[in-house]
Specification:
192 residues; Rossmann fold; globular; alpha/beta; 28% helix; 7-stranded mixed β-sheet; single chain
Length: 192
């Protein structure tokens, strides 16, 4: 059993029981549109929130235990989301295209070697002109506990060719770590 599957046997610190404020803000600002893929959806809070707004949403995660919880939530809330176990490095296996991809806490788990594979995987499921919104831990978050920190330069390097970076702005990643949120980057990146 991998780390993430075992983490979802309980309640991991990134599972806050509601959508991330940054995803709510993106939806309220009209940045999310069309069909949506939540890559690394965990137990599905962001996907379920977007489905409640009327979006067609798919949620994928490599952790079977997370997808089981997401499906249970969808059934309880009577929300239609297509939740699937899928490796984010192989999104082409979905055989589908999306207008928007959201990512809350997935990108920062990838190694340097996996990042270009992930970018190619994303490109395979995003329509040209489609947008990828990424919320990841920032290098400005103090300490070393938790996931790997990411710099703006690393984001720009990964999404240099075949992508247009619309913005990378300071944001906060909400966790169950305590009363303080984690320093993060929110990126808007368009597939060319």
């Amino acid at each position: 059993m991998n780390f993430f599957d075992s983490a979802y046997k309980g309640i991991p610190p990134w599972d806050i029981g509601r959508p991330q404020k940054e995803i709510i803000r993106l939806a309220e600002d009209g940045e999310i549109n069309g069909t949506v893929l939540d890559a690394g959806c965990g137990t599905g809070e962001n996907a379920l929130y977007l489905a409640s707004l009327g979006f067609e949403v798919w949620g994928v995660d490599a952790a079977d235990s997370a997808i089981k919880k997401a499906k249970e939530k969808a059934k309880e809330r009577v929300k239609s989301v297509n939740f699937l176990v899928c490796d984010a490095l192989r999104l082409q296996s979905l055989k589908n295209k999306f207008n928007t991809v959201i990512d809350c806490g997935l990108f920062h788990v990838f190694s340097d070697e996996e990042r270009p594979i992930f970018a190619a995987s994303l490109s395979s499921v995003l329509f040209p002109g489609g947008k990828y919104f990424m919320l990841c831990f920032s290098e400005h978050e103090p300490g070393s506990y938790g996931p790997r920190r990411v710099s703006q330069a690393e984001i720009r390097t990964t999404f240099g060719k075949g992508w247009k970076i619309n913005y990378i702005r300071e944001a906060e990643f909400e966790t169950a770590f305590g009363p303080h949120n984690v320093k993060a980057w929110l990126s808007s990146i368009t597939r060319l």
